[in-house]
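Worked example

This section walks through a single chain of length 316. The input is the sequence exactly as stored; nothing has been trimmed or padded.
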Amino acid sequence: MSLLGLSAVGAYAWNSTVERNPAPQVSFEDPLPSTAATPETRPAPSSSSTVTPTSVAVGPTGTCLESAESAGAAREAPSERPPWLTLHFSPRVSTASLVLISGAASEAREAFGEAGAVGVHVYCDIEEYAAGLRISSEEASRRIGERRFASILLSDIRIYGPSYERQTTADRRRIIYHEYFHAVQHSLSRNRSARGDLERPVWLIEGSAKFFESSMTQRELEAFRRSEVRRWAALPELSTFIDGAGSDAEFGPEVYRLGSVASDYLVTKYGRDRLQHDFWAALATTDWRSAFLQVFGISVDEFYADFETYRTTLRP
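Given that input, the structure is written out below as tokens.
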């Protein structure tokens, strides 16, 4: 899918505070987070992490709040919110979901850094969701059926509420962490991480988002490493997961799985900041292979060989 010269990356669904570049204008699809990690208990978001409700037409489809009385209650969400965050939502979206989304976005911003202005749109109706993504209702239904119900489009996170609200609280938070990290990638790289006319390492774009959504706390990181850092011998090499210039490739869950293992390896060898911030900032002014060499001090091909050797040391 191409949009305004930018393209979607990824096709499987799902999972610091310095002023960065302007808000991104991108289209990006993301998978549901892994449910393997068990998050630490976090305090409930304060009233300062709430939202200003905006009316969105709602059709008969969807399983957000069903009654008019409930919808009325949801629209009474507290009016204060972080100045960098805007939420747009159906009147049938629960207040609890809005507070959770706002709180998770604030946690992600604190962990990953600023990404400019961020918006979150939550829809209860497939027609509205499709319109928000600029796709057909049939395509929206197909994606939802494949558990693809969260994406970034034009700097805003867009979520199909009925599918989102069926996830566990931990998974709903990880979805926001994952999407917010894409916003950081886009902001730091000045959208070059999402440009469809450039070669992009989908394994690194999606894999790093999955890694960082899974490592918000040390406990989560340890759980991720226990469950996900494996050889995955049946999966192809990292070099398979490249979105060539002008292509519209779609990748399955393997890109997130293997990419997150590679991201963990990069963080272990070179430090968190280089992958969380430095690589994406370098990408703003050069191609991704040159940025990789500049930041990690190793060529992409050398890293591929190193990673394949590392994979053989992991458990099956």
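What to look for: Confidence is low (pLDDT under 50) at residues 1-63, 67-78.
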